Every structure is written in structure tokens, then in C-alpha cells.
Amino acid sequence: MTLRKARMKGDPDVETQLAFRLYIVYLISFFLHLPARLGFLGVIRFDFLLVGLTTFLILSVKTTKDTRLDSASRYLLAIFVFAILTLPVVEWPGSVINNGMVAFIKGAIFYFFTVNLVSNERRLKTVIFVFIACNTIRILEPLIMHVTTGYLGSATYLGDGDYAGRLAGAPSDTVNPNGLAFIIATVLPFLHYVVAPISRKMFALYVLLFPVLLYTMGLTLSRSGVLAIAIIAFGVFLKSKRKALLAMIGIAGLTVIFLNLNDIQRDRYLSLVSHDTRQSASAEGRIEGWVSDFKVAMNRPIIGHGLGTSREANWNVAGKDQISHILWAEIWQEIGLIGLILFILYLQAMIRNFLKAGRLIRTISKDDFLFRANEAMQVWLLMNLLFSLASYGLKSYEWYFFGGLSVVLLNMVNRKLEEKSESKSLVPVSGNTIADKYPLAGRVNEYHPRR
Questions:
Q1: Tens-digit pLDDT profile for residues 71-95
Q2: What residue ranges do the domains of the chain occupy?
Q3: Are 292 and 285 in contact (CB under 8 A)?
Q4: How far apart are CA 395 and CA 121, in angstroms?
Q5: What are phi and psi of 261, to 5 degrees?
Q6: What would the pLDDT profile of 258-291 be if each residue is shown by its tens digit?
Q7: Angle at CA of residue 160, ends 282 and 168, nearest 5°
């Protein structure tokens, strides 16, 4: 079908082609922070222009597509509407309008773009590979700077007046050591399930990158990052048919890694399980911080203090000048118990999408790209649920980007199953078709080509 004919027939893939390309540019700009690297892009508000133009193109497309919202979309919209309706009764409505709403829309826009623009498997592959490539660059850039210039970017207090450096994101990136650890933990499942099986060269790349990423994780001194890696390994182990081999590789790898840790790293990670280390006090402080965060949430338990006001609530109620570092407390503090329930229902819909897509795609092929992508996303989701206990995220992109991917993935699996069933129904049964009974009927055009 030509481009012109496709447009005449209202093909949504063609009509949203420009919008999808702009979305890819936005993903690259967002993850690599292009406006921070190229000053003129910051001056013209490049990301804002991309979002505005992409949104306009999506809304201007006229198709016959079913406009009914899926359950994840309904819950996400309900969170936004609830935040607006509670504006008159929250404690700091100005902060909600100026900060909370803007930050939430910046995160939720990933869901909106993904659901509306990732309409076929080719586009899904493009989005996932751009996502993997950009985040791998975000990991390697500060590592290369550390190796070449000694760059670290952050530090942590060890006690007795001593500090230790921690690797954070590059200067143009706004990510702290725990954030860099999260990026590493995010990339690993996709390298394992999506990239490595493509070819021998890609498998070699995966084998090469794996120890590099683990080394970078060690430089972050992130305890939650190490736990995230453990969860990923556990998820891969559960899904693998070669459990004995993986167990041996894992034990050998842990032994080598532990023997190569320096004293500070070893003390840092042992503080997770021991009270006799120098940094065990900071681990205990994190638990005490959780208790304090939930006490702040109970100050306004039903409707919260307002979207985006976790830091203000912590400062005014508990005298702590920082946003809550546990997702569930952050949500409760900002949009109350009602908002927390809506967010949990949104996560439940996302999980249900991934699980259903996994069950259905197994009936087609376990070597299929959709199957491998779904495996990676399931392991990522398991990891991120753990990471939510050590990081905020109500307004972060990841919950909404992957929520959109869950909807897209399930739609594609259902479509592939429908195409498979239709192709089976079109297979002729010998002796029951017109062509079988009247052999010349299907050959009319051979004798009369102009007909």
C-alpha cells in the first residue's frame, strides 16, 4: 500500500509517523539531557516544544480507533483529577500548581505518548533500543570520567569526620549515586533478555558490559542498588531452565566481586546485615526516616498535603528538609490515602497487563521479541517494587513509561494472536472450496487479464 493510499484509508501508523519520530527525539533529549549539554536547546525550551508539538499531532489525528480507556489509563487519569479536585483543601495549593502538577504531567506524558504512538512491533523495538542505548550512555559517561579524571560527583559520611566518594551521574545529568544505581539495575534485564539473544555479537557485547556495569555499581556505594541487582538475579533465576548453572555462576561471581571490594565498599555493603560496621548507623537512620515519613503522612491522612509537596510537608511537620525516600510514604504525604489506593490500583493494572501478555505470548513462541521484552519488563517491575522502598517516584517517568509499555505489549500480543487465528481460518480445506470443485474458476484472469 502506498503512502498516499494509506493516508486516504486513515492508517494510524502513517498518520502518527511524524509524532512517533518526535517522541523518539524527545526520549533521546530527556535521557541524555540535551538542553543541558547544548545551551541553545535550553534557551528555546527544546523539550517543551517537542512535547507540545507531539501532543498536538496526536490530538489532531482522526482515526476510527476505539477511544475507550483501559483500566491503567482510568486510574492514572483519576489520580490527576483527584489532585485537581483537592486543590481548595490542600495545605499548599500554590506549590501543587507550580511544581506538583507540572512534574506529574512531565512523568505521565510518557504514558500518553507510549500508548498512543507505539502502535506496532517495529516501533516497540525502536523505543526499547533507544531506551537501552541512552541509559547505557548515562552509565558509561560518568564511569569514563572517573577512570580518566577521577570524577565521582558525590560523597557519603562514614563517621568520625571521614567521607567517601560516591559515583553519581555526569555533570550534565541530574542523578545522584542511588539514581545511577537504579539506571544500572534498569538496563541489566533488557541487556539480558532483549539484547543478548539477538546474535553472537550482541551476546559478546552483553558479556563485556555486564562486569563493567557491576563495577560501576560498586563505585556508587548504593546499598539499595545492590539489593536491586540481587532481586534481578533472583527473577532471572526463577525464569531460567538452567538453574544449577546459574547458581554456580552466581556463587563464583559473588566470590570474585567480594574479594575485589575495597574496605569502604565492603563495610558499606556489610552494613545491610551487620550492626558492627562504620556505616550501619546510616542504614538504621534510613529505617528511622521511614517511620518519620509515615508520621508526616498521618498529619493529613485522607487527602494529603498536595501533589508535589512531600518536601514541604517533611520540613513543616518533621523539620526534615527532603522529599520522602520511600515511594509509598511520598504518595501518602502528597495525595493521601485515596490517592495511594488509586496508585496501587494503577500498579495492579500494569502488573496484570504484563502477566496476561506473558501467558498469551507463550502460546506463540518463546523466541519472539515480544516474549523477551515482556520477560525483561517483568523482572524490571519486580526490581522497581523493591527500589520503591528506598526512592521517591510518584512524579518520575519510569512508572508511567512502563505502564504505557504494559498496555502496548498486551495489545500487540492480542493482535498477533488474532492474526494467527485468522490465518488458520483462511487455510482452505481440500474438496470444500470453489477452486477445488471448479479448477478453472480461479484461473479466469489468466485468460482475461483485463478483467
A1: 899 999 999 999 999 999 988 888 9
A2: 1-67, 74-117+302-423, 124-278
A3: no
A4: 28
A5: -75, 140
A6: 766 766 766 666 666 656 565 555 555 566 667 8
A7: 50
